[in-house]
Amino acid sequence: MKKQPRTSAKLRPGLASEPAFDHIMLKRCAHLRKQQLRYQESNSEDAVHKSRVALRRLTTALDAFRPLLRKSQLKAWRSEAKALFRALGEVRDADVYLAALPDEERSKKLVAATAWLREKTWQDLKRKDAAGFAARLEKAVRDKAMLRKSRDGRLLRGRAVEQLAGEAMDGIWADLAGHGADLAAMSATERHGFRKDMKAFRYLADDFSPLWPKEGRAEAEDRIRALQEDLGTLNDMANAARLGQPVTGGEEEEAILGRAGGVWNELSGLRPWWRQDRPAAAPAEEAETA
């Protein structure tokens, strides 16, 4: 059995941001390496999906530690990860679209086109050594090649990780609030952006979870999962419509939007558990209806 990469100091309150970066990024690299290996071996729908999740988790963690990192390094690694993510995204969208169609609407031509795209992307990524991305990034983390060397950079590297984590959580929470309170008033593109920010919020909450009491975040977790599920369904419906084949049957979009909007209103009114010293946030204002 292949030895797993050794991670650094255990994440805990009071740990400096630099070893926290090592710990989280090595964990993310190991996760991505595992999923990339599965994809390289199987080229399956599940492997495509989980590779994309691993890449999104990794870039979310990189963004959280942005204050510690050299701009050129962050830009280069992030760009490579995003290129992989987009390539796999084309395959994922085709898979989801095909799966949503009734059997009688899955033409041989469409099935063949989806298979062709899957094979082409797989071969392209193998040729570009996409499977080696995680190992290269892991080496950069261990070699400290990504970290700022200036005086300010060194000070930030020594700062307690819960300060950095709290600022990162505040940032993505502000991004979510900036989308507005009324999901039904958003365009499909705007809801997609909201959905991506919600994923980033959840991933940060997972990565930094040892820093805060579980009681503080437990109330939010079920709501986040429920909201993500509904947002995913809405996104699949929007993609199918964009491709010219709206999904029929199942729950109506209006009902899903209503439920998701209610959950978002509840979630936005909860006390931010990563800032327990702050007062509870005011609930998002409901949009006026005619």
* Class based on secondary structure composition and strand pairing: mainly alpha
Give the number of domains. 2
Shape estimate: flat
Spell out the helices and strands N to C.
HHHHHHHHHH
Strand percentage:
under 5%
**Could you name the CATH class of the largest domain?**
Mainly Alpha
* Proportion of residues in helical segments: 55-70%
Report the span from N to C terminus: 63 Å
CATH architectural group of the largest domain: Alpha solenoid
Name the CATH superfamily classification of the largest domain: CHAD domain
Total helical elements = 10
Protein name: CHAD domain-containing protein
InterPro entries: CHAD_dom, CHAD_dom_sf
Domain CHAD: 14-290
Can you walk me through this structure?
There is one protein chain. The protein has 2 domains: 8-159, Alpha solenoid (CHAD domain), CATH 1.40.20.10; 160-281. Helix content is 68%, strand content 0%. The protein has helices spanning 17-42, 45-64, 71-100, 108-127, 133-142, 151-158, 161-178, 188-207, 214-242, 253-268. Helix 2 (45-64) crosses helix 8 (188-207). The longest helix has 30 residues, at 71-100. It is flat and about 60 Å long.
Sequence-ordered SSE layout with sheet pairings:
Blueprint: H1 17-42, H2 45-64, H3 71-100, H4 108-127, H5 133-142, H6 151-158, H7 161-178, H8 188-207, H9 214-242, H10 253-268
Helix pairs in contact: 1-2, 1-5, 2-3, 2-8, 3-4, 7-8, 8-9, 9-10
Task: Please give a handful of descriptors for the protein shown.
mainly alpha, CHAD domain, disordered C terminus
